[in-house]
Specification:
The chain is of the alpha+beta class and about 290 residues long. The protein is built from 9 helices and 16 strands.
Length: about 290
């Protein structure tokens, strides 16, 4: 049986469960949300899992850390509950090394975005010229027109540097926390999703600096990047221990060269799955059911 675990409000989990049912793949959901609190018992070190008094005979596991509950309810306790459930299922995978688990080598590992950019560059991928800084005084004294700012750990949109500086207290010489300051790149943004050895590439059609500012921006499938990009990208995914990932690229405005923004190890993919007729979810299920 395939166990798919995550948030009750996560459309990616629900889509995968529907597709597994349509394909006749034995699957069970373990969904957690404001009104969904399964009764879980996990024995340690035996690794036996019982959910709502049902002993589960699991052959493959796909667990997603739920971010949707916290988006709807920003209380710290909500985010902590989501993390606790994720930790429990990561622990279940660890206690059962023969269990087929998606992204097993990356489960429970937080990807540091600074380190990931450095690793990507060492593997041959072009990354943006980047400064990690809290020095507002130096930023105000330098050129701002062709630079952008974004948080180190995500959660907020990428902004033009001038706009980000305008949001800071002009009396302060230092920001409360460091952030990324990077060169401004050219669109359209390219999303490259890797599932095992399969590649799905999409152009995101928006004029916004950050495509998340337009969540309904259309995506269309396009040709995959050349081997000079795909080879290092697969190497990066392997180094991070993930079989499912999504990389975001933009282009150098002068040379047109693809530049990696980041690699997401728990990517959102429903819009892209729709754009390719469900092929992404099918590829994930094939990977888990093999």
């Amino acid at each position: 049986m395939l166990l798919i675990a995550g948030g009750a409000r996560d459309p990616h989990v629900r889509r995968a469960l529907r597709r597994a049912e349509a394909r006749g793949i034995p699957a069970r959901g373990l969904l957690v949300g404001p009104e969904d609190h399964p009764r879980l018992r996990l024995s340690v070190p035996e690794g036996r899992l019982v959910v709502d008094d049902e002993p589960l005979d699991v052959g493959a596991l796909w667990v997603r850390h739920d971010v949707f509950a916290a988006l709807a309810d920003p209380r710290a306790a909500v985010a902590q509950r989501a993390l606790d459930w994720y930790e429990a299922l990561v622990g279940y995978a660890a206690l059962n090394p023969r269990l087929r688990a998606l992204n097993r080598d990356g489960l429970g590992r937080r990807v540091n975005k600074i380190a990931a950019l450095g690793l990507a560059a060492s593997l041959g991928l072009r990354v943006p010229r980047t400064l990690v800084t809290s020095d507002l005084a130096a930023l105000r004294a330098g050129p701002v027109a062709d630079a952008v700012a974004k948080p180190l750990r995500g959660g907020a949109l990428c902004l033009p540097l001038a706009e980000a500086l305008a949001e800071q207290d002009p009396r302060r010489a230092a920001a409360p926390s460091p952030a990324f300051v990077q060169e401004r790149l050219a669109g359209p943004e390219l999303r490259v999703t890797l599932v095992g050895e399969r590649v799905f590439s999409f152009a995101i059609e928006t004029e916004a600096l950050d495509h998340r500012a337009e969540p309904d921006a259309p995506a269309r499938r396009v040709a995959d990047p050349p081997p000079a990009v795909l080879g290092p990208l697969f190497a990066l995914a392997r180094a991070l221990g993930v079989e499912l990932s999504a990389a975001d690229f933009k282009r150098d405005p002068e040379s047109g060269e693809l530049v990696l923004l980041e690699l997401n190890t728990q990517p959102m993919f429903t819009a892209y799955d729709t754009a390719c007729g469900g092929a992404i979810v099918d590829a994930i299920l094939d990977l888990l059911a093999r």
